[in-house]
Task: structure prediction
Amino acid sequence: MSCLYVLWDVIDDTIARKVNSSDASAFAEICGCFPSRVWGVIWLIQALIFFALGVIVGLVAFKESAAEQKAASAHFLPVPGSNSAISISPGAIMVTLMAVGIERMIALL
Result:
């Protein structure tokens, strides 16, 4: 979702802008070789390329079928209230973390 926002933001800030104060206009003043809208188009093309590459990498990396994903998710996290779920209170977690922190402080001395 944030990738889609980047695409919209580049279009809104550089190509379809109504105010002449954007990153692209500042970059165009510094560089001087292209107007700000050209930099906006260049940045949009770059963002589209990275967006497409992210989708392709995601499809390649997660190539399990729906049945394989369902089978893997059946034992990924325990269901609350089941026998395999850990029932520990937040107070017990805090006591454990404090004990570990005290042990590390003693070790440093």
Remarks:
- The mean pLDDT is 79.
- The radius of gyration is 26 Å.
- The longest helix spans residues 36-61.
- The chain has five helices and no strands.
